[in-house]
Amino acid sequence: MESLLANGSARVSISFQSLTYRREILNGGLRFGPRYLSNSIPMSSGFSSLRCTYSPNNKENISAGSVTHAKEIDELIHAEEVKQWESGKSVNDIAAKQGITIRRSCRPAPPAGGGMVPTNILEQIIWDKEVEVIQSKQRMPVKTVEGLIKDAAPTRDFIGALKQSYLRTGVPALIAEVKKASPSRGILRENFDPVEIARTYEKNGAACLSILTDEKYFKGSFENLEKVRKAGIKCPLLCKEFIIDLWQIYYARAKGADAVLLIAGVLPDIDIKYMLKTCRELGLTALIEVHNEREMDRVLRINGVQLIGINNRNLETFEVDISNTRKLLESRIQMIQEKDITVVGESGLFTPDDVKFVHDSGVRAVLVGESLIKQEDPGLAIRGLFGKDISN
Fold first, then answer.
1. Is 307 left (phi over 0), alpha (psi -120 to 50) or beta?
2. What is the H or E stretch that residue 187 is in?
3. Indole-3-glycerol phosphate synthase domain: which residues (predicted)?
């Protein structure tokens, strides 16, 4: 939401200009896209957003795509979150109305100052990530990242790879995670070679790979993502990052990602919508992660969602319960099928019975890290997870 709301100038800009923008959009005179990002409506330092430029010679031959863009931007400009922001509500109050408990822009003060402290590990990660992203953008502005994207290889079909694997094997497609550590378990693998692990996963039937890029808490890096992409690995790659800023999506694309993770427990609807739009412009797939029923219902109301991950781990307590998958799907599976959404099961999957349980609940792919990476032979671990060989 900070992408659209968290700067006072945004309140003035959207209020004053929204009707003008709306008229120009419907006339086909506004163009949107990554190359126009630098002249965005003034927003917070956390995001660059709503890049719009007027083209008076662009009014004829409005394509279906232009109309879609117009509707998307019009919805963003007139979103309920924007109205609430303009009325004086805080970013965190607006997020809380959507069930989001992770607070944003809350810097811990020195102990003597009695400042705010994080209520859980996810909130701490997000606060640290906000500082990290600001520093990263100072070192490498968006325009520089855009230049890197021009030289990046085309993205690969992440969802297509999952569907093909499911049809081939009859079991949920595997997104195998390249992860060295986690906040709850510490170091998972001392002898950690991301490229060698990725090759082993691919050889033993992984449809896609998830590459952890958070450094402080997961000992990952965007360099690991880039190394795997440049090593000739054919599996599409998910950038597993705590994304709070469009800059991270652009940087993931530049480093070789084919998909990115968006966490509904952190991002309000307006941010998810705009980030989805950005992903489409960059050719990326968005895996939107939910971990409770309210988040699932929020995401199902958003147009254009193709991939939903159900995290069986409570993001605040880190407790795991795989029955969460069935609870979130049992009354929603028909809607999910009608929308042609692929559901990914995440966390707590260690045995063939676990995989069967989520499969029977409606899952068609699983994202697995810990139960594979901790084994001396990750390839053998994949066969143990599914109870059979799923390699080609």
1. beta
2. strand 186-187
3. 122-384
* Positions marked catalytic: 177, 179, 240, 289, 311, 346-347
CB atoms within 10 A of CB 110: 7
- The reply to whether 166 and 89 lie within a common domain is no
Q: How far, in Å, CA of 337 to CA of 271, rounded?
A: 25
Alpha-carbon span 334 to 341, nearest angstrom = 10
Alpha carbon distance 358, 2 (integer Å): 35
- Give mean pLDDT, residues 265-291: 96
Which region holds residue 304: left if phi is over 0, alpha if psi is between -120 and 50, else beta?
Answer: left
State the pTM of this model: 0.84
Q: Tell me: the pLDDT tens digits for 98-131?
A: 999 999 876 655 555 556 788 889 999 999 999 9
Phi and psi of 339, rounded to 5°? -85, 0
Quote the CA–CA distance of 276 and 280 in Å, as a whole number.
6
**Short-list 318, 334, 357, 320, CA closest to 121:** 318
* Site of tokens 């927003």: 43
Q: 43, 66, 96: which is the final residue of a domain? A: 96
